[in-house]
Amino acid sequence: MMMMWSNFFMQEEDRRRAARGRRRAQGQEMRGLSPEREGKTKLALLLAAVGATLSVLAVGTEFWVELNTYKANGSAVCDAAYLGLWKLCTKRLWQADVPTDRDTCGPAELPGEANCTYFKFFTTGENARIFQRTTKKEVNLAAAVIAVLSLVVMALGCLCIIMVLSKGAEFLLRVGAVCFGLSGLLLLLGVEVFRHSVWALLGDEDGDLSPQGARGPRLAFEFSWSLGCGVAAGLILLLGGGCFLLLSLPPRPWGSLCPKRSHTAA
C-alpha cells in the first residue's frame, strides 16, 4: 500500500513539474521581441503607416481623374470635371482664368461654379452622365469594392502588428506581412480597374480618342493627385509587407546551410 501511494505522489509531482515547464516555456514565448527586433518591427510599421495614410487619402478623395473640354472661340466660359471612386464634380470656369498656353479648360482647381454629387450606382443603381457620356457602373463599382477591400485587409495587418508589439505574438508577423502585401496588390488593382473605367467612359479603351466625339463634346483627360497617392500607397504597402516577411524569418536561415568551419591549431 505504501508503495502505491509513493508511486502516486511521484507521478503527481512529475505532472506538476511538466506543467510548470510548459508554463515557463509559454512565458518565454510571450515575453516579447528582442529590443533589436522590436525596433526593426516599429520601423517597418512606420513605413506601413505612411502607406496606410496615403491609401486612406486616395480612397477618400475625388481627384482621381480630371476631364476637360476644349476652349471654344467666342465663349466666356468652359467646363471641366473631376471624379473619384465615390463622387463627381463638374465645374464651370471663366476662360479668362485659364492659362493661355492650354487648349483645354482647366485646371479644375481654378475658381468657378462647382456642382458635386455622389454616384447613384451605389444606392439606386443608376449610371452617371458626364458631358453627355454614361459611366459603366459595373467597372466603377468593381474599382470601389476592391479599394475598400484593400483598406479592410490593411486594417487587419495593422491589428496583427500591434498584437506582435504589445503581446509578443511573433507568429502574427507573417500574417501581418501577408495582409499588407495583399492590401498593396488590391489597391494597385483598384487603380488599374479605375483607369479602365475612364477609358470606358470616354468610349475607347485603346486610348486613341476620336477628334469629334459622337456622344458628346471632345474631351481631354489627365490623372490627378489622388490616383498618384493610390499608386504610391500600393507600392509602400508592398514594401512594408516584404519587410515584415523578412522579420518573420529566422534570424539567420542560412546558418544551417553554411556552418562555421572550426580552425584547429597546428
Give a description of the structure.
By secondary structure, the chain is of the alpha+beta class. The protein has a single domain (36-205, 218-248), classed as Butyryl-CoA Dehydrogenase, subunit A, domain 3 (Up-down Bundle). It is 53% helix and 14% strand. It is built from five helices and seven strands, in the order H-H-E-E-E-E-E-E-H-H-E-H. The strands form two sheets. It has a five-stranded antiparallel beta sheet. A two-stranded antiparallel sheet has the order 5-6. Strand 1 and strand 2 (77-83) form a beta hairpin. Helix 2 runs antiparallel to helix 5 (225-248), helix 3 (137-167) runs antiparallel to helix 4 (172-202) and helix 4 (172-202) packs antiparallel against helix 5. The radius of gyration is 29 Å and the shape is elongated. The model is unreliable at 205-214 (pLDDT under 50).
Q: Radius of gyration from the CA trace?
A: 29 Å
Number of helices: 5
CA distance, first residue to last residue:
65 Å
- Using the coordinates above, name the CATH class: Mainly Alpha
- Please indicate the percent range of residues in DSSP E strands (runs of 2 or more): 5-15%
Averaged pLDDT: 81
* Principal-axis shape: elongated
How many structural domains can be distinguished in the coordinates?
1
Portion in helices = 40-55%
| Helix vs. strand class | alpha+beta
Indicate the low-confidence ranges by residue numbers: 205-214
